[in-house]
Amino acid sequence: MLTEGSIVKQTISALKKRLEQNDNVIDVQSERGHVYKAKCTFNHPASDEEIANFENKTGLILPPDYKAFLRITNGCQLFDDVEHGGEIELYSLEQILELNEYYDELDGCYDIAYIHQDNIVINSKLYSENQKNYLLWKDHTEQFTEAQPLQMNFELWMDRFIMSQGEKFWWWSIHTAENYYRFS
Q: Which residue numbers in the chain have pLDDT < 50?
């Protein structure tokens, strides 16, 4: 039986294993057949004390699956093109504090990641109301009030994000055969 946090552990473990088997570089096939060599960089894990201090300082709730992620890696960079770099960063607790310095005004929302000009957002107010689908996304220039629901929690998002090799899968339903070529 799966428990909250077990999927994120399995997903990151499998990604790290793939990287280790390939000298820390993997081939990634992205949209329209583009293939590149990518690396991932993982930070040191966050301690239980650091996690508790974050929650106490901010009054924000970190869901259990997200805490499981932080205990594995306190932030990371994923699928960075070896030649050109990347724009996929899951923030450390320190970065979350810096980027969301006005957390008392956020109504329970805080950015946890930057993915090619999108932010991934945890709405801890939704989580505190026992809603399992607490994850949102927004353009990095938008306010939290403009964030869109992803209809999932962090570990489900992480699992799908790794499977899609860093692509913004949450956009896929927006692109149809009628409009895909206009967006390209």
A: none
